[in-house]
Amino acid sequence: MPAVVVSGSGENQEFEGRITVYVIVCVIIAAFGGLMFGYDIGISGGVTSMDDFLKKFFPAVFEKKHHALENNYCKYDNQFLQLFTSCLYLAALIASFVASKVCSKYGRKLTMQIASIFFIIGVILTAGGINIEMIIFGRIFLGFGVGFANQAVPLFLSEIAPPNLRGALNISFQLFITIGILVSNLINYFTTNVHPHGWRISLGIAGVPALMLCLGSILICETPTSLIERHKVEEGRKVLGKIRGVENVDDEFDSIIHACEMAKQVKDPFRKLMKPVSRPQLVISICLQIFQQFTGINAIMFYAPVLFQTVGFGNDAALLSSVITGLVNVFSTVVSIYVVDRAGRRILLLEACVQMFISQVIIGIILFKELKTTGDNLSKGEAIFVVILVCTFVMGFAWSWGPLGWLIPSEIFPLETRSAGFAFAVSTNMLFTFIIGQAFLSMLCQMQAGIFFFFAAWVIIMGAFTWFLLPETKGVPVDAMVDKVWKQHWFWRSFMIEDDRPDVKVV
Ligand SMILES: OC[C@H]1O[C@](O)(CO)[C@@H](O)[C@@H]1O
């Protein structure tokens, strides 16, 4: 998940430096952290739809799936099966509190190393799993890895990126996540026909990015910001010179020193976050995360193969359809990188609401009409139409609520509360991802086709929220947000009266 830029608002300043090979190597290594997260998101749906896996760990679900004991919508409704997917996010939520301390006390590099060790343990336990407990423990370890990696990698990327590339790199983390999801969909497509251990291969391949992150994080440098924060000022200057590839890094160095000093002056950022002046940023960041998850995206990302089987696809067709939605996810995220600073945030979010709403309502209507009783299936044409609609839904999400759910919280907080505010955003995301992961299959069973109308209703709420309460922040310098955005806004300006911000001028 993309980064909060803590090293001053260098976005508005030109410093000397070029993109060095070293920076590129560091970015690639850190990318494995994002890939790993995406891989874990995407892999569980395919694995939980594989017969060999179900027979071994969830025989009751296997029976339901093959003997039509229940209607289509309830085939996969099983709390443990959902726990296999969702426990990862609960573990990540818990780990992220510890990780944020480790990250600022001991640095980004060590935090990434710890993440990769968790990942490796998680991969061994899940791929080698012999009972449910072992695979759930494995997923929990993967979750610890995600908690640590998601704290360190975005910060690391934004701190080593040349300032003019920070925005693009911010969205790149989401891009790495989507690539990880796609790779996992592809792997599942091939391993589903490898019996009886295809699922072990799927879960085991996660070891590749985990090992790359582990070995790579020995090679990479610590970021200058983290070194300076931890009083290793001279080393910080040296590393800055090395990653920028120029002799004179004085300006950027001074700006990092200044930003670190400013950040230190804020005694209690969490208290400051609770004051009315921070209300707009806090409410918006939390709501964006809740809304991001209530678009229903992870119902698709986690359970697409299961969902496609629910509407009557065979195993291969279901997995292939997931590959297609994975591809749409990646390409639409790339679109966002190009469009976001040209078109602005609001228009992307609002357009996506319309697109997602239409897709969900039509899917809901088709399923409502065609999948009523046990044994019903969609016709081939209808099933293909549903896949197309899932793609238009994912497309809308991926160029808006996906990346912007992270970008906006990272740019609206003033420096004093940025880190703390972003931590809230990360934990809210993990919490609601957990809720969707744990509840979706049961909701599908209870609400049947109505689940799509449920998510569509949320899309209306988030559209209204965006329309009335989300100001445009495109091109607004970070230190001008209060004057140019919040004090001008019809609703949020009433919170700006008690403006007790310390005079932090971000340079
Ligand atoms: O690309 C979709 C993925 O992006 C996220 O919303 C993170 O921003 C995940 O929760 C989701 O699985």
Automatic annotation (TrEMBL):
One GO CC term, this protein: membrane
Source taxon at top rank: Eukaryota
Membrane-topology descriptor: Multi-pass membrane protein
Every Major facilitator superfamily (MFS) profile domain range: 26-474
Record-linked PROSITE patterns: MFS (PS50850), SUGAR_TRANSPORT_1 (PS00216), SUGAR_TRANSPORT_2 (PS00217)
Molecular function GO labels: monosaccharide transmembrane transporter activity; symporter activity
Keywords: Membrane, Sugar transport, Symport, Transmembrane, Transmembrane helix, Transport
Protein location: Membrane
Predominant localisation class: membrane
Stored Gene3D superfamilies: MFS general substrate transporter like domains
Segments traversing the membrane: 19-39, 80-98, 110-130, 136-157, 169-187, 199-221, 282-306, 318-340, 347-368, 383-408, 420-441, 447-470
One protein family per Pfam: Sugar_tr
Record keyword Nucleotide-binding present: no
NCBIfam families assigned: SP
Family, per entry: Belongs to the major facilitator superfamily. Sugar transporter (TC 2.A.1.1) family.
Protein name: Major facilitator superfamily (MFS) profile domain-containing protein
Source species of the chain: Gossypium tomentosum
Lineage: Eukaryota, Viridiplantae, Streptophyta, Embryophyta, Tracheophyta
